[in-house]
Structures are given as structure tokens and as C-alpha cells.
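step 3/5: co-fold with adenosine monophosphate
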Amino acid sequence: MTAHDWNGRLVPFPADRAAAYRASGEWSGLPTTARLHESALRHADRIALITAEGTYTYRELDERTDRIAAGLTWMGLRRLDPVIFQVTNRAATVLAWYGVLKAGLIPVATLSQHRMHEIGHISEKVDAVAHLVEAGLSFDLVDFAREVGKGHSSLRYVLSIEAPEVEPGVHRIEDLGADIDLAEARALVETIEADADPEDIAVFQLSGGTTGVPKVIPRIHAEYWNNGVFYARAFGWNEQTRVAHLLPIIHNAGISCALHAAHAVGATLVLATPDPVAAFKLMARSDATDVLIGHGHYQAAHSAGFDPVLRTVRRTVLSGAKVPAELFRKLDDSSSHSRWAGQMFGMSEGMFIVTPQDAPASARADTVGLPIAPSDEIRILDPSSEEELPAGAVGELCCRGPYTIPGYFGAPEHNTNAFTSDGFYRTGDLAALHEFGSRRYVAIEGRIKDLINRGGEKVNAEEIELLLLRHPDIAAAAVVAMPDDRLGEKACAYLVPESTAELTMAAVQEHLNALGVAKFKWPERLVWVPALPRTNVGKVNKNSLRADIVERLEAETLEGAHS
Ligand code: AMP
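step 4/5: write C-alpha cells
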């Protein structure tokens, strides 16, 4: 069977590279869920998942998700039908994820915070067939899914998790396949898997790092589970490992570095929620050994609340922003070898760079490490050309490898700029290579892409500027990152009024709400100016705006200290 090419919207890997990845074993010939099943058979009675609501063994997880897959198929969903996911860190999310994959469907990894602006666009882009939402959140996602369905003819099913009761037209994942014979469900899953091509799309992830609206990232079966395998290997995980995750599990980092990575090696996933108090309690209770801490949790990890966790956590991986030296020292006790801290740099497009276990302390503290797959390739290029820069020089980090996409889905024009002529993905991040021993470690030095990294959620500046400009009272808009102690960065909008009237924050929020824009993207500060500063080539001078907001914040802090 050959992979479905989605009318040319899926960019295939070049044949020579695909052949090399197959030959090296970095690509798998099996679909993602066949790999899960293999692992489940090997580790049947081990604990696969711990959440605040309960635990599942590998056997329970495997059997339950076989039945969900059968239930989805019986409902009428067919192989390669995309299913939008808007859910949080719940056991039912994991069940839904594997159940959907086993039915041969494609999870579309959107966020529970996304609204019509995002979901409408993505649903159309991938021709989504079903919409899975979590009930019981402060915003009624079940109602929202019905609303989305009205405007999208391809969307035929609403699925839910956590719904307390059956509602007309909504299929509860928890009920699916409960009365289907287990052997029959397994046979059905195996039939679906037999039809799959390794180069078929397994999952659609979303890009945070591009221009305009979010781009869709197609991850394929050949590489997706193995991405998790490489990650688990990089940290030496095994059946004794208990991996805690607090960030949204649906992010690519959640799936690849926690869910799939843990389940590839028989480890336990301790699935917590972003609330640090609840998360640290669950971690302490579950004897977590490993955790990934995003920069939105750096402060919490530094607080005393994290101390009970350190009784069992052996490895802390920090990611998302420069690691404060003091935090690193707290989490890394190399003298007694009881605690190890390292870093991770990664992206939904693929490439993961992590600290090797045997890296010297300075490399662990100051660099993000080395790529995780043998065939991963990185280059530091001049941002305005394809010229490679000498070791030590800061340039654009570009990468290529077995699990890094060769192109966004259905975005041919964008792809010509986002990839080099020989297929390296231009990350938009600035990096330099530093030598420690015989290895060249990657240090992240900033970025050239125009986004705000709000505690790990990426906000695209251009996307918000265009939305702000749709207000009749805004003549010009420039959105920049402003530093924030807790989240790392927040969005600040510099606005030029159309007339003399300056809108209030509430009016701007109302405008973005009416456009259905996810709240985490709304600017959290407005600065009204008579005109935007320009560079000598006439572009908005964002560097001067970034410097301006830092100055304003510093002046306010000083004022606060003196008042
Ligand atoms: P996403 O695809 O949402 O995971 O975002 C990927 C982007 O997050 C990267 O291209 C970087 O801009 C940023 N990022 C990820 N890890 C790090 C890190 N350790 N340090 C700095 N930025 C990071």
C-alpha cells in the first residue's frame, strides 16, 4: 500500500533519505499503535499511567483502547479521518489518543484554549471529520463543538471525554466499545493496521513558530513512535522510570517526550496538570523519577513546594528558556550523583536536542545538548542565506533528520522559505555550537522568528497584529514580547489610534473575543503611540519596541519600590 498523498498537500521525504532511515532502523515499518501493542504485551502488568483519577496497567490501557477503536469504527469513522482534540491532561485523553490512533484516525493536536479563529481554520485545513472535546471545563467545549460543526460540512461527529451524562449527538469516549468483544476489537485493530502505510500521516501537530496563521505539521507513522524511543534512550529510561508531565500532554513535547517515550520502554507516565501544587503532590505520591519542567514552571520548581518531589526525582530536564544558574544548582547535585539536571530543546516540527547523560556540568548548564537520533543533522546558517557559519558563531539553527518534517501540510509557498534547498528546516531560532571534549553542543542564543513564548504557548505576533487591525479604531499595531517573571514572556501591543480615541483594554479584549481568538494570545498590555518606530528600510522597528517595554517595566518596578 502506498501512502495517501492528500492531493499533494503532504510533502514526502526524499526517497534517498527515506531509504537510509529505513536501512538504519530509525524508521519503523509498523504503525504507531502496533508499537504500543508490542510494548503492552511485553509490560502487561506494569503501571502504564497514573493520574489524579486512577491508574492503568499496560494491559488495561491496551484492551480499553482496542475497544474504543472498535467503537469509533462502528460509529462510521474511517482510516485517515482527522479528529480534532480539545482536551486537557486526563486519563481519558490518553485513552482517546490511543483509541483514535488504533482506529487508523488522525488526532489533530489543538488546545482546549483554542476557539473559533483557530479551530475553524485548522478544521478546514485538514478536513476534520470528528471533534473530540472535554466536558466540564469553564468554557463549554461541547456546545462549542456543535457550533463549529454547523459551519464545517466535513465535521460529522462530536466526541467527548468527562461528560457526566449522555447528550444527544455526542459520543462519550468512555462508553465507546464497552460492549464489544475484546478479541473482535483486537482483530479489527489489526485489520486497520494492516492497511496502514508507514508513510501515512499519524498525527497532525500545530506549529507555533511560523508566520501568519498556525501551520499544520504532519507527523508520519514511520518516525513518530521512534521519536519517543530516541527521547527515552537519550535519558536511559526503562521499566523502573516514572516520568511526570505537567505541561499539556497534547503538545508534541507531551506526546513525544512523555506519553510515547514512556510507553515505548515500559515506563510509567505520571500525568499531572499544569497547577504546580496539585502536580507536585501527585509526583511525590507516585514516586516520579523524571520530569520535564517548562519555563512556565521554573519559579514553581525553585519554590519549597518542589522539595518533596526531589526525594524521588533523579532527573530534571529544563526547557523553553535560559536556565537560571541558581535553579540549575538546586536541581543538580552532581557531587552525590543523586540528582541530575539537563536541558531539552525541541519543536513540533521534529528535532529534539537534549543533554547527554555524561555531559560535563558546564555543558549541562549552558547548552541544550545534542540531537537524539543518529541521523539527525544540524547546521548553523547565515539567516539570510544558506551559507554555513564557523563553529562558535551565532546563526540560524537549521535541522534535518528522520523525524523532522520535510514540509508543512498544504503550505507550498511557506515551505519554500521554511526549508533550505537541501531540505533543512529553518527553525527561526538562533544558536551556536560549543565544543566540549570531542562533541559540539548546541547553545540557544535567541530567535529571529516573530513570536511570543508565553510559558511554552507560542503566540504569533503577525497573526495578532492582523486581528487587531480589523478594529476600526486601530490604525497600526505591533506586538512584541515583554518579560514576565512567571511565564517568561507575555504579549504587549503597541497601537496607533485611528483618531484621537484610544481603546480601553476591555474594548480590545472584546474585539478579540468576538473574532474567536484564544485568550492566551490576547495582548496583556497596550501602549498607545502616535506612530510606530521604523528602521531605515521602513520596517517596524521591533527591537526598539522590545527595548522600550523593558525600560517601562524597569521604571515601574523602581517607582513601585520607592512608593
Ligand atoms: P513548539 O513547536 O511549540 O514546541 O515550539 C518550538 C520552539 O520553542 C522552538 O523553535 C524554540 O523557539 C522554542 N524552544 C523550545 N525549546 C527551547 C529551549 N530549550 N530554549 C529556548 N527556546 C526553546
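step 5/5: annotate
The pocket of adenosine monophosphate is lined by residues 208-209, 252-253, 319-321, 343-348, 368, 427, 429, 444, 447, 458 (CB under 6 Å).
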